Amino acid sequence: MAKKARKSTATKNDNGAAKVELNDRDKKTLKDLVGLADRIVVDAEKKRDPYLDIPARTLSNVRYNKTKRRIELCGNTNRRQLFNLSQAKSYMQTVLVASGCKQLIDEGKTLSLRGLYYKLKRSIEGTKEETFADQSESDPVIEDLEVGMNSLREELHLYASNRGNLAGPLTVFDHSTGDEIDCARMGSGGYSIPSIVENDIIEFKKCTAKFILHVEKDTVWRRFSEDKFWRTHNCILTHGGGQPPRGVRRMLNRLHNEFKLPVYCLLDNDPWGYYIYSVIKQGSINLAYESARMAIPDAKFLGLRSKDYARCELSPSVKINLNEQDIKRAKQIARYPWFEHKKAWQKEIEQMLANGFKLEVESLISKDISYVTEVYTPDRLREEDWLD
Amino acid sequence: MEVQTEEDTGHDEPATNGAVNGAINGDTNGRRRRATAQSMAASQRDISVSEFFAKNRHLLGFDNPRKALLTTIKEAVDNSLDACEEAGIVPEIWIHIEQTGANRYKVGIQDNGPGILKKQIPLIFGKLLYGSKFHRLRMSRGQQGIGISAAGMYGVLTTGKPVKIVSKIAPRKPAHYYEIKIDTKRNLPEILNGRGEGEDIPAGDAGSKYIEKHGIEWIELDHGTRVTIELEGKFVRGRGSVDEYLEQTAIANPHVTIHYLDPECGAGTGEERLWPRSTDQLPREPKEIKPHPYGVELGMLVAMLQDAKSQSLSQFLCTSFSRVSPAVASKICKTAGLSTRSSTTKIGRNEADKLYHAIMETKIASPATDCISPIGEELLLKGLHHVVPGEFYVSSTRPPAVYRGNPFQIEVALAYGGTSTANRVPLDVLKDLLGESDARTLRQFLTSTFYGLGSDAADQIIKEAGIGPRSSPGKLKPAEISKLHEAMRSVNLEAGQTMNVLRYANRVPLQFQHGACAVTQTIMSTNWRSYGLSQSRGQLPTGPVTIMVHMASVWVPFTSESKEAIASYPEIQKELRLALQSAGRKLALYLRRRLKVKQEGERRNVFLRYLGEVATAVSDINSADRKKLYDQLLLVARRKTAQADMKLDQRGRVIEEESDDLESDPNVLIVKPTNDFGIRTTESSNGKKGS
Prior knowledge:
Structural class of chain A: alpha/beta
Number of helices of chain A: 15
Number of helices of chain B: 25
Number of strands of chain A: 17
Oligomer: heterodimer
Helix content of chain B: 40-55%
Distance between the termini of chain B: 53 Å
C-alpha cells in the first residue's frame, strides 16, 4: 500500500507541481475508497454481513426544490448486501469498480466507461460467468459508486465518451494536454466538448459571446455552423447529440454561471425534446446528486413549438404522428412538478397532443435550407418568444 | 369368460368353412353351379384348437420372430412361478438362450418347482387348452392353458425339433425325460423318445451319467421342471426384449431368483446375469372363489343351471355363487317370479332370462376380496429399488375393489431420480446394441432402444456427438461410436426424459400395446404438474421417473388374447387414478423438499462464486490480507446458508436426516446417493434410522 501510494504521488509530481488542488481531491477519493474496503474487512472480522448504502436514484427519491428550481436527491438509500442472493453480484461488481478506480488514481490515468468495463471484465475463477456481461452492467455500478461515495466521476478518473460540440467566440485552456483552444477557429467540426470540463482541466480564458444557443442534434448544429450563425449573432453554439452528456451540461452550466450568458434551447417538438429541455433546466433523476453543478434553471425553450406548424405554414409531409408511447410520455412530462404549474407549458403540451403529430427541427428545412438560421431563430430571439 | 372363449373358437368354424366354400367349383347340368350341399358337406369337418392356433399364432403373441422368443420364455416362466407358488416353494429360475443357427435359438427354462407327474407331462406340454387354471377363479399368472404348449408347437413348426422336458418330483425319485411333438390335427402330444413312453433318469450318480451321455440339459435339483424348445426367433435388446421382461419380472416378484444366460453367454462372451431375490417370503396364497352373480352372463347362467344336478333354485344360487345367502336367493327368486324350491332342471330359457335380470336388479354384496394377493408396499419398494436406480421411492396399495363382479386390487410404486439407462450403458453393450438394431436411423435407434429417451433427447445426443442424424446405426465407425457413447453419458437426459411406465397384471409384466392399456391412459389423464413433474396435456409426464402399476385380480380383463393391455373399465380407472394420486402426493412432498435444498445450495454457490472476487478487490484497495479476508467471508457465507449445509453432501444435492413425515412413512424409501456414478446403493434412510 505504502509503496503504491508513493508511486502515485510520484506520477502526479511528474505532471507538474501546480496541481496541489487536484492532489487533494485524489487523496480524498482514495481515502473514501480505502474506507469502503476497510469497512468490509471489519465486517468480515466481526462475522457480519458486509453492505453498502447507496442513495436511491428513482423518481420517488428525488424532490423538486422550488426555490433553487432544480431536482435534488432525497435521503433514501438502498442497502446492497453481499449475502443477498439478488444483490451478491452487483455488490461484487461495486467492489471491483472501486478497486479499478483506486488503481487509476494510483497511476494517475483516466479511462472511459467502456475502458473500465474492459479492464474489469474477466471470467470469475472456476466458473464461466463473467464479472460484467456487458457495459450496461458496469455503467450503473459506476454511477452507484459515484453516488455512494459522494464523489464525481472525474474524481474516480473516469470519463464518458465525447458527445456534443461547441463553436463560438470562446478560448479555453486544456490542462490535460496543455493546449489553448480557440473555439471560433475549429473549422466545420467545432470543438468537441470533453467529458470532464472542470476548471482544473478546462480553464476558460476569454469569452465575448452574448448568449448560448443549444440545439438538439449534430445535423441542426451543422446548419447553424455553416451559416455562421454564431458569428452573426455573437453567440456560442452547442449541441449534445440528443440527451446531452454530463460534459456538455456542465459546460453549459459553467458558461451560464461564469459569463452570465443566457441559454436558449432549440429542440424538437416532441416529448423527447421537452425532456431534454427539462434535464438541462432542472437536472435529471438519475444524476440528481449532481444537479447543483449541472442544472440551468434559467434556460429557455426556444422551439419548436406546437403552434409552429401553422405559424410557419409547413407542408403536411413533415408531420410525424405521435405513437402511444409519445402520448404517454407527454402526459407524464406534463405532470412533472416543474411543469405542472406553468400554464404556458401545459398549453404547449396540450396543443401537441391535440395536433396528434410531432415536428423535428429539420422540418423547417422544407421551407428553405437556411430558414431556421435566417428567419426562425432570429425572429424568436427578437420577439423574445420562448417558453420558460 | 369361459363361455366367451369357447364361443370365440366356435365362431371361427363357419368363417373357415366360408373360405373353403369359395374355393370349390362345382359344374352340374350345364349351369355353372359351384358346389352342392353334398360336396360342401364332404369338406366340412372338425378343426382342432391346435390347427386353429397354428394358423392364427399372432393371437398368442407369436406375430414375429422377436416376439416369439419373448413369448416362449414368458409362458414358461409364468408357468414355473405359478407352480412354485402354488406348491409353496420359493422360486428359482434358470433361463438359457443359445443360438443354434441364423434366426434359430434353443431356449431352456428350468425351475425348482414341485415337478410334474409322469403321465401329465405330455398333456401339459403337448396339448393346447389343457391346464388347471381355466376352470377356476383364482389369481394366477396363466389363465387359459394355451401358452407353453403353443410355444412348443411354434418351435416344432418352425424348426422341426421336438420339445424336451425333464421333470423331477422328489430327490429319490427318477426324473422323467420326454421329447414331444404336437399332433396339430388331433391336438394331442406325440412322444418321440422311449418308444412313445418317455424315459426315466434314475436318481443319483447313475442319473448324472445318463444325462451326460444323452446330452440332456438339466441343472441338478431335488425337484423341478425344465423345458427346452428350439425355435425360430430373433434376439434383441432394449425395449420389448427378454432382458427387459426378466428385469421387470424381478421387480414385481421380489421372492424370485433368476439366472439368465443370454446367447452371448452361450457363445462365451458374456456372463450370467443374476437377479437375486430380496425376500424369502412367498406372497400370500390367493384363494379360489366362486363367481359373483354380477359377473355372470346369461349364456353362462344357462350352462351352470344345466351342469347343476337336480337341486332347488335357492340351493343352486347359494352354492354356485359367492355372496348369495338364502335370504338373497329368495329375494332373487321373488323378483324373478320363481319359487325358491323349483328344481334347476325345470328352469327353461325364459325362466333363466328372468332369473338373470332378477340377479342384476337385486342388491348383492361385493365379492370377498381376500382372494387377491397383492405384492405389498414393502416388497414393491424393495423390488423397484433393487432394479431401478433412484433416490426416492414410494409405493401405494389401494384397498381391493370390484369390477363386473370380479375383485381386483391396484398397486403403484414410483421411483424418482437416478440416471437413465442411456446414461449408464457401457461402450461394448452400446456397440452390440448398434449392431443388432434394425432401426433405420440413429434417432430411431435411440428412442426405440432406451426407455424414457424421447426424440428431443435423442436429437440432443446426436447433435452433441456430431454425427448425422440420418446415419444408419449399423454403419457407424468405431470413432463415431465412442463419440456417441461419450455424448450419451454427458447429455443431461433428465429434462427431456419421459416417465418410464412398467405395467403388470398378476405380477406379469406387460410390454406391448402400452397406448391401448388402461394404465397408460390413466397416467396420461392424471395431472402430474401438481406433483412437481412437467407434463404436456394428454402426454406422459417428463422427468427421471419410473412408475410401476400392478393390477391383481382373479380375472384380469385383457383387451386381447395375447395379454398385452388391460381394458379400461371405469372402476379400474378410478382405482388406478386414486393409487397414482396417492403416490404423486408423496412425490410432490419430496420434490418440494429437494428443491428447497437445491436452492439453498445454489445460494451458497452464488456467494462462493463472488467471494473470491470481492476479497481480491478489497485487498487491492486497502492491502488487506486476501486469504484471511476470504476465509472470514467464507465463514459468514457458511453461517448464512447453514440450512443447505445441514442437508448437503459432497454432491451438493441431497438430503439426510430431517424429521419429516416422509421418512417415517413405511411406504417411502429415500436413498442416499453415492459418489460412484450409476451404481446403486442398498442403504435406505429407514434402515439407517435403526443403527
